[in-house]
Amino acid sequence: MHPDTQAYNDAQSPDDKAICDLLADEIERTLPGAENKVWHGHPVWFLDGNPVVGYSKQKSCVRLLFWSGQSFDEPGLLPEGRFKAADARYTSADAVDIAALQRWLGKARDIQWDYRNLVKRKGRLERLT
Prior knowledge:
The chain is α+β, with helices and mostly antiparallel strands. It contains three helices and eight strands.
């Protein structure tokens, strides 16, 4: 885990830190080789420069965001924003379904929309193969 991600996790309340640490550990284990950094203030993992998954502390929860999550066709992920993102929200580490998380992470690796070039394409997303 990147030291900035660990610092982000360490800055959370004990309950939220437990969620963040669990998410980071599972992401690291399931997406070996993904680049991890704090991006726009939150931990994010990238594959070939494309953001695929990250999390952030919200007012009432920790939000796990998959940039291409609407294409996963998975229960438990809710559409987020106007592009292809979907999220899950957690208030305790016990609420994290590890099997679902691992399945979602596998899909995050295999199903990607090209967010890296979103600005260059003037807001038009293209599916990566």
